[in-house]
Amino acid sequence: MTLAGIGYDSHRLGAGRRLVIGGVEIAHEQGLEGHSDADVLTHAVIDALLGAAGLGDIGEHFPDTDERWRDADSIALLEEVVSMIAAHGLRPLNIDCTVIMEAPKLGPHRLAIRERLAAALGLEIARVNVKASTGERIGFVGRGEGVAALAIASLGDAA
To answer: What is the Cα–Cα distance from 31 to 33, expressed in whole angstroms?
Structure first.
């Protein structure tokens, strides 16, 4: 059996925050605002995994009203989700993601992001794909106000 799930997240850019994408800190004059580390890509991957497993969404498991998750490392949350889906007899098979942002360019960081996500997911790097796009100066992403990410995850039986 193969299951699929889709995840989406977006966060506003703001001063005084780190820019963390896929567990990798990227030097930039602005970072992403949010309750946790605001890692938009990892949040989209988490939602894709939870959706594929029929386990709700990131807000149900790690609500932004709970101080335990303030400034949380999203990779640690991802590892917890991988454990959750394993408890339901499932494992990640493949992840495909798109990060939509104007700046900085994601290309120089893509391999490090894939490696970080693959390690957290227990996957070979070949099973984790990360693409980059821009907002073409349209909408909040295009105006440089924020970053968005999409992810699709496929799950299979853990056995």
So the answer is: 7
